[in-house]
Every structure is written in C-alpha cells, then in structure tokens.
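Hi there,

I know you've been waiting on this one. I reran it after we fixed the sequence typo, so this is the corrected version. Both the input and the resulting structure follow.
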Amino acid sequence: MPYTSKVNVPEGFSNLGEKVEEYEMLETPEEEAAESEQDQKDEETAKYHYPSLYFDHAEALKSLPKEGTAVIHFKKVMEKTTTIDINGKSETKHCVELQINGIKAGESIEAEASEPDDEGAIEQGLEAASESK
C-alpha cells in the first residue's frame, strides 16, 4: 500500500498509522538548528504507512463503500515483538497476523472536503444535466 498523509480516524478507533521517517544522516549543529524550523513544515507533509487487509475470493465484500466502519470477526494466529538496535537507537516493532473469519459493514463515512471520484463526478454531471432540461 502506498504511503499517505495522516488519516483522521473516528473516535474510539486505534490509529494504526506509523509515520515514515526519512533516512537520517549525521548532521552539524547548524543543520540541526535549521532542521527544527523545518520540522513543523514537514509534519504537515509527513507520510504515514497504514497496515492493510487483502481479501481474495471475497464476492460478499463487493458492496462495501469506499470508506466506512466494519466489525471484523477474527482469530489471532501469530503475534511477535522484536527489538532492533540501529545506530545506537533501539526500535521495537510489533506484528500480528489475523485470520479474518467474517466482516460486518457498519456506517459509511463521507470523506471531508474530498473531491468526487470519476464515477461519482459522472453521476453528478448527469443529474445536473437532467435537472437543467
């Protein structure tokens, strides 16, 4: 899945987005000072990685909206935590594998101030054209 900007997750949901850090080079004190000013600007354009679920042979999911909520019935089949030391920094990663047994779609969420997709734009254009006649 490609990286994306930070997503506003509805209240009560865990935000699984993880900020993607660019490769860090050793910096001089002057570069570090300039970087702190840039940090705030970078936060606005930061990229995030979100885990994804891929469903194969899932005809029952054809009616899911582009965005929304769902209840998933799962069985945890694997869980692992690893700690890696890189350049003196300790980084802990946790992964889990879920067997997805069922899914129940909830409410659809309208994306805030989003532009319609091509199909939606065509439908809106056709509706507007028929109303103007």
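Quick highlight: Residues 29-45 form the longest helix (17 residues).

Best,
R. S.
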